[in-house]
């Protein structure tokens, strides 16, 4: 009798265990990822592509879609892709002057420039340079100097594309794009091509009123001896090599120069912040307005260092520094 009783008790425990197992709710199935774009691009469309390799700071998480357009039509298709899927979009040139957060960008990143080709036209018609928005600005400076045209030779030190440079009125060594632009071809957010004359564009220090993507531009230049222009560029490059960490991972100038006699770099230096490090990001000992990725830095490190420098400078000098680099992503 005892044996039978024990057998029945054992069966009961197994039955309860089975019932409990059945009662545990199963995890809900994951939603399938959205299908890949049906639109055919002449260039490339990459999904979940890490953006660190496309920025000069070597920082940033992945893009939901990274479009490397072959031509203007591809750029239009990229805007349509963003609109169809309800995604944000942003334009990336050579990846300077930008900080992509560690979580990446949850939308469409349109790379106007290398390695995406097709928007880097260069042609001289008299003293007018017709330039694609994807052309690297240092290359524009070299080509015009070789051809004996002055006006953009000082741009040899701008680490970005012509399109991005015009959009933000980039400049260096006392020159800026506002001085040479005569006409700009823009792709507006709806994908329509518009021609803007110089009178329609309002340029300010590191800013403009351009709404859209700069596809092409006309620049008014003057004639000058190629030898003289190259000599000047040689001097500027030597100064840049000696005074900035141009060959290290950074975004270029971190802050814009405030109004007044002192630059952002001077103010940061006066506060004794050269060499200050957060994680893998350091205030350069060569130029205090350059924050360098020492190899293991993150976007979070950069943001913390930016905030620390900004607060220290404000406290010690009363000057509120404004970011020149654009922060994107999540």
General description of the model:
The protein has 330 residues and is an alpha+beta fold. The chain has three domains: 44-111, Uridine Diphospho-n-acetylenolpyruvylglucosamine Reductase, domain 2 (2-Layer Sandwich); 122-228, Uridine Diphospho-n-acetylenolpyruvylglucosamine Reductase, domain 3; 245-328, UDP-N-acetylenolpyruvoylglucosamine reductase, C-terminal domain (Uridine Diphospho-n-acetylenolpyruvylglucosamine Reductase, domain 1), CATH 3.90.78.10. It is built from seven helices and 20 strands. The chain has helices spanning 2-23, 72-84, 137-146, 162-167, 226-243, 264-270, 299-317; strands at residues 44-50, 62-68, 89-92, 98-100, 105-111, 122-125, 128-132, 149-150, 171-172, 175-176, 181-187, 193-197, 203-204, 207-208, 213-220, 222-223, 277-278, 281-283, 291-293, 326-328. The strands form seven sheets. The protein has a five-stranded antiparallel β-sheet with strand order 6-7-15-11-12. Strands 1-2-5-3 form a four-stranded mixed β-sheet, covered by helices on one side. β13 and β14 (207-208) form a beta hairpin. The longest helix is centred in the N-terminal third of the chain and has 22 residues, at 2-23. The model is unreliable at 1-22 (pLDDT under 50).
Radius of gyration: 27 Å
Low-confidence stretches: 1-22
Share in helix? 25-40%
Order of helices and strands: HEEHEEEEEHEHEEEEEEEEHHEEEHE
Name the CATH class of the largest domain.
Alpha Beta
- How many individual β-strands? 20
Strand arrangement, major sheet: 6-7-15-11-12
Question: CATH architecture of the largest domain, please?
Answer: 2-Layer Sandwich
Largest sheet: 5 strands, antiparallel
What is the domain tally? 3
Apparent shape:
globular
Count of helix runs: 7
Span of the ends, CA to CA:
70 Å
* DSSP strand content: 15-25%
CATH topology of the largest domain: Uridine Diphospho-n-acetylenolpyruvylglucosamine Reductase, domain 3
Mean pLDDT: 90
What class do helices, strands and sheet pairing give?
alpha+beta
């Amino acid at each position: 009798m005892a044996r039978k009783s024990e057998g029945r008790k054992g069966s009961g425990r197994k039955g309860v265990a089975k019932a409990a197992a059945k009662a545990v709710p199963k995890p809900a199935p994951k939603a399938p990822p959205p299908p890949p774009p049906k639109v055919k691009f002449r260039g490339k469309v990459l999904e979940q592509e890490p953006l660190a390799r496309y920025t000069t700071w070597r920082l940033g998480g992945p893009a939901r879609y990274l479009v490397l357009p072959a031509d203007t039509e591809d750029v239009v298709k990229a805007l349509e892709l963003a609109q169809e899927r309800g995604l944000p979009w942003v334009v990336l040139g050579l990846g300077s002057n930008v900080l992509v957060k560690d979580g990446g960008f949850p939308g469409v990143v349109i790379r106007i420039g290398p390695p995406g080709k097709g928007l880097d036209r260069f042609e001289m018609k008299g003293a007018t340079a017709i330039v694609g928005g994807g052309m690297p600005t240092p290359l524009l400076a070299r080509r015009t100097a070789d051809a004996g045209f002055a006006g953009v030779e000082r741009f040899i030190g701008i680490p970005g594309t012509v399109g991005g440079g015009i959009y933000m009125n980039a400049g260096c060594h006392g020159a800026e794009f506002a001085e040479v632009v005569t006409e700009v071809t823009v792709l507006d957010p709806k994908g329509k091509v518009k021609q803007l004359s110089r009178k329609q564009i309002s340029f300010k220090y590191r800013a403009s009123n351009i709404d859209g993507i700069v596809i092409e531009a006309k620049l008014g230049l003057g004639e000058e001896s190629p030898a003289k222009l190259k000599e000047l560029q040689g001097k500027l490059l030597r100064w840049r090599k000696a005074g900035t960490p141009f060959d290290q991972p950074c975004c270029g100038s971190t802050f814009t120069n405030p109004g007044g006699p002192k630059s952002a770099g001077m103010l940061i230096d006066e506060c004794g912040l050269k060499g200050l490090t957060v994680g893998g990001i350091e205030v350069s000992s060569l130029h205090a307005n350059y924050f360098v990725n020492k190899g293991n830095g993150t976007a979070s490190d950069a943001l913390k260092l930016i905030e620390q420098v900004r607060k220290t400078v404000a406290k010690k000098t009363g000057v509120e520094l404004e970011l020149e680099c654009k922060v994107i992503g999540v």
